[in-house]
Records
---
Amino acid sequence: MADVLRITSRIAIPLRELELTYVRSGGPGGQNVNKVASKAVLRFDLLRSPSIPEAARARALAKLSSRLTQDGELLLSSGIYRDQPRNREAVLKRLSQLLADALRPSKRRIPTQPSAKARARRLTEKKVRAHLKRQRRAAGEEDSGC
């Protein structure tokens, strides 16, 4: 594996900025699960990382604010596989995808208006519906007079 984790075409994080630890994981594995630390836990200091440009960092901090610790660290874990190397790859892939999504600028919404034909159709449907309800009300008043 390379010494960097590629996030976008311009941004790559050196692996030395990531803190990977392994802990015991629940789930499948039988008795082996109690002996082997296969769950990968990744810590990335997003707030102080020199690898991410300032504008991109601000965008990522805003989008990932609910997932950050008070110190500005991003914590991810993966324990879906029974062995360390696959969990390590899974957690690195999740970090890469999460940061790539957070760094991508959101599309600006272009306000639109309904067409004249759509407005006319809506008003026509409203009139038909109101007429139908008026007819029901008139018929209902005659029947309820005991």
---
Amino acid sequence: MRVLAVVGSPEPGGKSAAAAASVLVGARRQGADTELVELAGRDYNDEVQAAVERADGIVFAAPVYRARAASPLKTFLDRLPRGMWGESNAPLRGKACAIVLTGATLHHFLALDELRGVLASFFAAQVLSPGLYMHSEAFTEAKELSPEWSDLAAAHGAALVDLAKAVRDSKALSGLRPLA
């Protein structure tokens, strides 16, 4: 079982990366091999897409700016093939995904819904609900998660592994595709 975290923050090593790393802790406790990739300063490349293809579960993490996930994650998803209209592969189709968004206040937690819709409807991924939105009070001054939030993130990592196993073992779940 492989779980990949893709961090779509414009800056490396921030709160979104810390939150994604905590989700991976829970996945490792369930026996998964994990990897974290930060998109900051990186052009879209085949290496990241290949890592998504190899993964059984993917954590998408990003800060929220103006009620949407930051542009590096959106740009990555805009360029990721879906297996439609002549595309030869669909790295997210039938994969288990989790969402971790970070922001300054609680006001932007509904950004989870937009990203969930893109992953589920546009890519035909199976998205773990409810998703995580971590506002500034979830972090210490050192940009680490408080114990309560760290435990919650790890629980999502464990749940993602369970979801990935269920999706992998179900021809019906893993065989769904985007409608258009």
---
Amino acid sequence: MVTVGNHWAQYGCRVMPLEGLGTAVANGLIEGIFYGSVLGAVAVGLTLIWGVMKVVNLAHGHLAVFGGMLAANLVIMRGSDPLLLFLAFLVLGAVMGFILYYASIHKIIGKIDIITLKEEMATLMTTFGFGIALFGFHYVAPRIFQGYSTEPGITYSLKIAGVSTIDLGFAVVPVKRIIVALLGLLVALASYYLVQRTTLGLMIQAVAQDSRALALVGINPVMIKLATTVISASLATASGVLYLVYTSSISPTAEFILAPLSFVIVVLGGLGNILGTYIGGLILGVIYEVTLYSTSVFLGTQQQAIALAVAFAILVVMLVFRPQGLFGKR
């Protein structure tokens, strides 16, 4: 099983000792920032395709796990560097997005000018099927690729100038955690720049508002919808590598954590708001990890179910009192 919210002692992140609950909260805050950055990076691709194209992509979590699983097996079998795979998997994710679009989305919304609830529900079901196919791939792959593991774990330590940890005064943090968090931030900033400051980004926003008008000025809405899906899948697949480096282990069932948390983050940050989604990831990451560590104080072990319950309680509260999210517009 995948380990989420790993204890700091297991992977080398050490917080200055406090008493009982104080230690748990300190651990949760430190881990939550790093974990939240990874979650934010994963969710950015979802807010793009959901908030812009109104496609509730239930395969999004599976794409992230697919990237993490494949990267882990390449590290084990080929000795590949996972952070170099992050760049390569941006390309692999683009290919997966192309397949996802024409296999699950194009026939439903490709030539539709206005996407209604009917089309949204249809894409939800087709992307669910695509995700199930990806989930099944990991259990078929060992029969095709010798050495492929369904629950791979990696040992990866990143050093800068020969140093693998950094002392922040109040905590000692592995360098790889800092790099992963910075890459998560970079994913969010690059996505924001793409959507808000480039011609393609303006086209993506335009097709969400009125694809018929876009066609009248000579731009093919189908190609823009394809591009949006490709970018979303690319970000999801590559972010799965960041998730792998953070956790050091992964399994197909990680989708049952990544997908729900990604949906909560998108709602929390604001549907279609890229920077809001990333900040929502940081907020949820901290809440999730603090809950995990706090339950270990009172119950003796980390209770993932309780942390998930808290996350979904946040979702319910947001939908009732601020459905547009913290940074979304009415």
